[in-house]
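Researcher: Next sequence.
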Amino acid sequence: MNWTLLGEGTRIAGGWELTPVSLPAEGTLRARGWATGGRYNSSTWYVESYRGGPLVLTQPLSRIVDFAAEVAFEVVAKGSEPLAYQWWFDGTPLEDDGRISGSHAARLMLTAVSGADAGNYSVRVSNASAEVTSTTASLTVAEPLITGQPTSQTGGLGGEARFEVVAVGSAPLRYQWWKDGMELPGETEATLLLSDLTEGDAGEYAAIVTTDYGAAASQPATLTVANPPMIIVQPAHQRTEPGGSLAFEVLAVGAQPLGYQWWKDGEPLVGETASSLELGNVQVADAGWYQVSVANAAGEVLSDAVALSVNTVTRDLSFRPNASGAGIRLPHAIGLDREGNVLVGAAESATHSLVRIHPDGTLDDRFDPNPDRSVTCLAIQSDGRIVLGGLFKNLCSEPRIGLGRIFSEGGWIAASFRASRISGSGMCPQWRGRRTAGSWWRVFHFRGNVPRQNLARLNADGSLDLEFDPGLPGSSTASPSKWTVASSWGHLSVRSAVRAGKAWRA
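Model: Next structure:
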């Protein structure tokens, strides 16, 4: 635009004046005023006004924006007021709507732009004198726009890998995955899933996303295929005394580097990231379940859970009956009398096959019923008398075959209790004033040659309770190695550890 100097105005109150002035048709008059004199005889500012047809002093600028961004086009126009504006897009006048504002103003604003908004924009400015059109500004919209790139990763042989690309743009969005520059047929989703990985799957992967308005390529992501970790030696269970030391160890193989993390009772142990876990000065609080996770870039594996037991049971070193001459070997039966004494029935080869030990661990040398062979089971009645079963034939120097009862003093046999001709031996708890006898062998023989198969009940005087005959089955080829006879208020439970493995309840 060319301006013609018309002359300098004359200072008047409130401004300047230039007369006479004649304007050409559709011409525009520009007047400027500024201060002179003062320091450097100049001013850093001026005032300006226009009269006549509109002029576009600042043209709209072309823009490049991302999909869904906001963009503005703006002009500066001068001329006699009022000035009117009309923005145009590719030759079509624009009107305000939900995304467009300022279509009749000096500044045009577009929101949430897409490829459909890309094109040429201009504005027509007019007043009563004339109209003028700005230069054209172009809008370029980057669409589609990739907002999430696929990431490089390491997968284990036989495992899986997943690549994902996130893009925005005008629907529909179309995807195509590539590997090492080659298109992967059928892989047209935003996610690429590779399963049952082999070494041939290693390489660079990328996706190209397209819309009706353009295309965008993702950054390449590298897939490395390696051996995941595998545990070949599991940690072992451990047991220690308080204050002891121990170590849990694991042996694993796989692509290096391998990382370790030890856990206790489901919680990670801070700082315990080696292949072994060493514990010193172990206390009861350290007891629990331990395991280790082993990981590398290809995967992770968790070891077996193993237990750490801390022994809290200590021996009563004051209880040493053999040191006082008890001579116990292979104890078969143990009972506790009303005074807290311990009765022990033992093998016949021992010095004593039935002894009584004081609570302090010393031998009661006044107690000596002197059974001639093993005492294998015993029961203590509420009145203190003791019922014995075993392989003996003599008790307190009197004949008793396999079953007898003695007084608590130990030197006297209860003569009223006589259950003779019993082959085998049994345990005899009291139950409603009667005794039950469980045999090692198959048949009891009582006075009168009355047989009972494996289990019998005796009256308080040692005679057979003829009303009690559960008729437990026996075995002609296998005999029980141990009988346990227990009483309750309504039935007798009989369990046996036998080679044939039988159990009954009567």
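Model: Residues 420-433, 438-443, 475-506 have pLDDT under 50 and may be disordered. The longest strand covers residues 434-446.
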